[in-house]
Amino acid sequence: MSARTVNQKAWWLVLPVVALVAFNAVIPLMAVVNYSVQETFGNNEFFFEGVRWFQQVMQSARFREALQRQLLFTAIVLVIQVPLGVAIALAMPRTGIGVSICLVLMAMPLLIPYNVVGAMWNIFALPDIGLMGHGLIALGFDFNYTRQPLAAWITLVTMDVWHWTSLVVLLTYAGLSAIPDAFYQAARIDGASKWAIFRHIQLPKLKHVLLIAVLLRFMDSFMVYTEAVVLTGGGPGNATTLLSIDLVKTALGQFDLGPAAAMSLIYFLIILLLSWLFYTVMTRDDAK
Amino acid sequence: MRSLKPLVPTLYIVFLMLPIYWLLNMSFKTTNEILGGFTLWPHNFTLANYRTILTDSTWYMGYVNSLAYVLMNTVISVTVALPAAYAFSRYRFLGDKHLFFWLLTNRMAPPAVFALPFFQLYSAIGLFDTHIAVALAHCLFNIPLAVWILEGFMSGVPKELDETAFVDGYPFWKFFIRIFLPTIAAGIGVACFFCFMFSWVELLLAKTLTSVDAKPIAATMTRTASTSGYELGLLAAAGALTIVPGAVVITFVRNYIAKGFALGRV
To answer: Is the CB of A88 less than 8 angstroms away from the CB of B96?
Structure first.
């Protein structure tokens, strides 16, 4: 990496990427910025409103509650998926046919369209005809995710764990296979315990992939939309109305373009800020 | 302790397979049997649901449309990402770090934020309800990802390879296509896989940008579910069929699947 030579002509190589991404990112983003400072009554008449929508969104209890639910959801999902994913990757076979079977089967949930995932779990958790709902009731639990907020949350989190833990597993597994055997041999000679091997050899080597895993899982869980909408529709009541669901309700349901645009920008900024925080905290030790 | 170790992945795979089993189970039942009561396996085994989907063009065209824009997107994303990843991996140039981070920030843009402006943008340039519109829109998150993965693989190739080729008098493009690309074939495979995957599973933008001619299978499913009551058997069969393309692709790249990330930088 350090041997990269200065060459300004390299800009020509990145130009197509910049053009395509800018077309898709900058124009829509400017449209959102445009809406966020104006009021419209239809007929293409717009009136400048300044920061009014931003103030309105920041002060609304509805936005704050949706944001709290979103933060809670992301926190729970990260706390479960990252350690679980690492544990599964550590227990996976290193050689033989088992590796292929594990990789193919584990990657399966990642390849199912989001709305199919939602529809699948919607039925799977139903108390009358779903395996999970029916099973829980047979075990004596009073479980109905269409009526009970707690049950809705449990189903939502279980679905996300089912859907995305494999990403952490695959990344961690790739990181583990990149550790040379010599490291383990040295540890064995020193008589290191399993925990010591994990703490002092595997964990430091996994830092890079874990950073990617945490960042990807953070961004995607913060942006989760389709699966959650198909599963619970934000209900019962507003119990599982996450930020993105609330946003789409405002933008497309009520057609409040101004507040929806202001909310979009605040939402995007929160993701950027938190991603930057994660990144800075996790790479801080390297800088020293 | 040693004998317990295989138990963890096994239990995890069982957990992963249960909902998929339930989907397959339903897809072989009639809607009456599904709603009639709780059965662990189909008592009146039927292939009627699959027959309907594979013979009715309003159903199977959904798969054709989805595959069309997913393949277009994969080709576009990986093709433009290849030279860019090479630039990031081999050269320093004005603003390279900022550019790389800016690309990644687009991976953080929630589709819900962009749905409405995308609709207006693609309507304005007359591409609404075409496959290419969805393929281009999905570039927003797939190009950054492809650049990220490919850059990782390219940085694993020693720089001496390039230098030797240039000393031997190869022009840049000839070297890039004839020598460099074959050496990172595995990386191209992984990038294609991830582009395919994220484009295949995305629905919000695909649905916003299409109405009839390019309607993705996932959108066909939501419509059918809401208008004609709940045709659960059909829905399950359609869902089960959406797993097939991904399962085919992953068996090809399973050994390389996550290595790209392990080598790259953030």
So the answer is: no
List pLDDT tens digits, range B160-217. Answer: 888 899 898 889 899 999 989 988 887 888 888 889 988 998 888 888 888 888 888 8
Instruction: Give the other-Cβ count within 10 Å of B162's Cβ.
Output: 18
| Mean of pLDDT values over B71-98 | 91
Residue with token string 């990149």: A178
How many domains does chain B fold into?
A: 2
Domain membership flag for residue A47: no
Domain end, chosen from B11, B26, B46, is at B46
The CATH number given to whatever domain includes residue A76 is: 1.10.3720.10
* B103 lies in some domain: yes
Both B102 and B159 in a single domain? yes
Q: How far is B210 from chain A (nearest CA, A)?
A: 16
Residues B19 and B42 in one domain: yes
- Domain-located, residue A147: yes
Q: Are residues B41 and B75 in the same domain?
A: no
Q: Which two tokens stand for residue B111?
A: 């589709």
| Beta-bridge partners for A39 | A47
> What is the pLDDT averaged over residues B141-149?
89
Q: What burial class does residue A155 get, using C-beta atoms within 10 Å of its C-beta: 0-12 exposed, 13-18 middle, 19+ buried?
A: buried
A95: containing domain? 62-287
CA distance, residue B50 to nearest chain A CA (Å): 16
Task: Please indicate whether, in this complex, the C-beta atoms of B258 and A173 are within 8 angstroms of each other.
Answer: yes
Can you give the CATH number for the domain in which B195 is found? 1.10.3720.10
My answer on whether B34 and B62 are in the same domain is no
Say what the pLDDT of residue B257 is. 63
Distant-in-sequence, close-in-space partners of B108: CB < 8 Å, separation ≥ 6: A219, A223, A268, A271, A272, A275
User: Concatenated DSSP letters for A63-96?
Assistant: HHHHHHHHHHHHHHHHHHHHHHHHHHHHHS-SSS
What pLDDT is recorded for position A73?
A: 95
Which residue is associated with the tokens 């008098």? Answer: B169
Q: How far is B181 from chain A (nearest CA, A)?
A: 15
The answer on pLDDT for B262 being more than 60 is: no
Q: Give B121's contacts in chain A (Cβ within 8 Å).
A: 27-28, 31
Residue A257 CB neighbours (<10 A):
22
> Token match 């050994």: residue?
B255
The pLDDT value given to residue A288: 45
Across the interface, which of B143, B236, B255 has its CB nearest the CB of A21?
B143
Residue A34: inside a domain: no
Q: Which residue range(s) make up the domain with B128?
A: 56-263
| Mean pLDDT in residue range A81-104 | 87
End-to-end CA distance of chain A: 19
Return the pLDDT at A31. Answer: 84
Residue A251 in this model has a pLDDT that exceeds 80: no
- How many angstroms separate the CA atoms of A282 and B89, rounded? 23
Mean pLDDT along residues B63-71: 92
Q: What is the pLDDT of residues A156-189, one digit of tens each?
A: 999 999 999 998 998 888 888 777 788 888 888 8
